Amino acid sequence: MLLRHLVLFPLRLTVLLASHLLFFIVFFTVKLGMPASALKLRVEQGLIRFLCGMYVASWTGVIKFHGPKPVPEGNHVWVANHTSMIDYIILSSYTAFAVIMQLHSGWVGFLQTTVLDSLGCLWFNRTQAKDRLLVAKLMADHVADPNTTPLLIFPEGTCVNNEYCVMFKRGAFDMGATVHPVAIKYNKIFVDAFWNSKRMSFTQHLGRLMSSWAVVCDVYFLEPQTRLDDESVDEFAARVQAMIAKQAKLRVVPWDGYLKYYNLGEKHPGLIEKRRKVFADQLKSCLPPGGTAGSSNSGGSKQEETAAAATAGTKGSKKAV
After folding, report:
1. Tell me: the pLDDT tens digits for 118-133?
2. Helix (H), strand (E) at residue 152
């Protein structure tokens, strides 16, 4: 433990910060100095692959990729199960991807809006319905353009613990595009890669990964799928979900991942009060008639005291005789 925290972590952090410095010098030189072109896009993609590769190296990532490497094509989209934001980092260290993702604050938001924007990534706020509608249109436009960076979507919409696979959202399956399933499976032998964003920041999550021995992961690029003629959008999404879950050995559950961000008390306070009243009425129906449980017990105690006093008086009379 001391070796990991006092030797490996500082060394990894130093290398990662140095790689950021080198990356920003070259990236902003290209971003500001080169005109928009296919060459500029390829250079930016290569630089982002380098930075993502340095992140993977900072965890001593042991990553195995299975299946054919993704090739940019028009009207194609890649979908994967989601455990942490490092899913995108791992995949982008192998080949460049644009992604649809929640817009974060802090240094993560800075990288999203200044670096990843060059790949055509799409950001949204999951609590804003208008953001989701706008992203759906931009997503369809991105996929239809054969000259854009391949688009990666996490249809679960939230991070899951890599043991379950929750409901897939319809967006990726309702565009008439060919869908490429990607199954990501982490080995928890050294560290659990699941990011619980409700309990820790992404910086804390990275610190935990960087102070572990290694992050071990298998990535499977599965056979591309198209929607069948007699298949609904939901059935298509469920079929792709089953393929990913089977390969990654995940249990499919009918839960909506957005529920953990949904505060029922704030959205529907009247519903909460209504359920409380129903529960209170059920409790009252279990109480004995003519008073509360407390008064009934009190009455019973008084009767016991009276009987005990009468018994003591009888015994005293017999002794006197």
Report:
1. 999 988 776 555 666 7
2. strand 151-153
